[in-house]
């Protein structure tokens, strides 16, 4: 796809799958790097703070796609990780846009996540499932339904158009593909593919009840790198504040050091701005 197609698909669907961004040999090298890091020590902090992962995460082809979607000012704030496992995690449609209460049908949310999957998920299980176009839909729950019928909520009312679901699809990711999705997009990991009907997309709540003999296995250990980026905005400020203060990240921030001068210089050369809210909050806790 060219730049306009990437942006058009992302705006319409809430995600874009860039096929063949990396060669099979490059992807195999990435996977070996993640496997070795996991074997040696694992990853406690963010991916940018780990020297072996830095060149992958800041690879020009990834940065160029980010600038197509977010504009010339791309912000990184320490939200990234890698996974290398053959185990299954929790499933269920969810959004990454924590602390976001704006009406998605009429507002934009310039915060996204990338997923660099390093094995086949066309003929194998373990990939990403999304609801196409759901970045424009509200999460269906008690608090959001109250906003449909009442303007008394501190977050304002929601429109009826905000409660459509969007068609669920399993993404056909292969080694070398890059997936980028808006934080508001409904998605679920560890997607199951059936042996008899590999194209069938099943609600993730029911996937765990499917007999293993009916499903297609993973193509070896599941290796993937995740990272979040954003464009300067109130939405980004809100999300960074949530991540900096969230109790689940208390152990994460002390293990990060992406404020290292060498990393700062590298990001400056790539045109990526850095935010250190989480690091500063962690140091304040330690000082107290």
What's the topology here?
Blueprint: H1 3-13, E1 15-18, H2 24-40, H3 51-57, H4 60-70, E2 74-76, E3 80-85, E4 111-117, E5 127-131, H5 142-149, E6 168-170, E7 178-182, E8 187-191, H6 204-207, E9 222-230, H7 234-245, H8 261-270, E10 272-274, H9 277-287
Parallel strand pairs: 2-10
Antiparallel strand pairs: 1-7, 3-9, 4-7, 4-9, 5-6, 5-8
Describe the protein's architecture and organization.
This protein has helices spanning 3-13, 24-40, 51-57, 60-70, 142-149, 204-207, 234-245, 261-270, 277-287, and strands at 15-18, 74-76, 80-85, 111-117, 127-131, 168-170, 178-182, 187-191, 222-230, 272-274. With 288 residues, it is an alpha+beta fold. It contains 9 helices and 10 strands. Helix 7 (234-245) packs parallel to helix 9. Strands 1-7-4-9-3 form a 5-stranded antiparallel sheet. It has a 3-stranded antiparallel sheet with strand order 6-5-8, with no helix packed on it. It has a single domain (3-287), classed as q2cbj1_9rhob like domain (Jelly Rolls, Sandwich), CATH 2.60.120.
């Amino acid at each position: 796809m060219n730049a306009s197609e990437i942006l058009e698909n992302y705006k319409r669907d809430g995600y874009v799958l860039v096929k063949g961004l990396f060669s099979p040999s490059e992807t195999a090298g990435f996977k070996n790097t993640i496997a070795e890091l996991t074997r040696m020590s694992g990853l406690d902090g963010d991916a940018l703070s780990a020297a072996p992962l830095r060149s992958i995460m800041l690879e020009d082809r990834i940065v160029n796609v980010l600038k197509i979607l977010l504009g010339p000012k791309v912000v990184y704030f320490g939200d990234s990780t890698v996974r290398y496992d053959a185990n299954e995690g929790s499933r269920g449609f969810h959004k990454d846009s924590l602390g976001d209460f704006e009406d998605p049908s009429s507002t934009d949310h310039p915060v996204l996540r990338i997923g660099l999957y390093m094995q086949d998920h066309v003929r194998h299980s373990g990939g990403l499932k999304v609801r196409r176009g759901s970045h424009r839909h509200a999460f269906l729950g008690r608090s959001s339904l109250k906003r449909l019928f009442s303007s008394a909520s501190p977050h304002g009312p929601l429109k009826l158009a905000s409660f459509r679901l969007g068609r669920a699809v399993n993404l056909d990711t292969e080694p070398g593909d890059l997936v980028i999705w808006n934080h508001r997009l409904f998605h679920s990991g560890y997607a199951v593919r059936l042996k008899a009907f590999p194209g069938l997309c099943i609600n993730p709540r029911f996937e765990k009840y499917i007999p293993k003999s009916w499903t297609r296995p993973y193509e070896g250990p599941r290796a993937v790198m995740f990272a979040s980026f954003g464009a300067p905005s109130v939405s980004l400020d809100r999300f960074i504040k949530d991540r900096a203060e969230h109790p689940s990240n208390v152990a994460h921030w002390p293990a990060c050091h992406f404020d290292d001068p060498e990393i700062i210089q590298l990001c400056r050369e790539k045109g990526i701005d850095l935010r250190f809210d989480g690091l500063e909050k962690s140091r304040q806790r330690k000082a107290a």
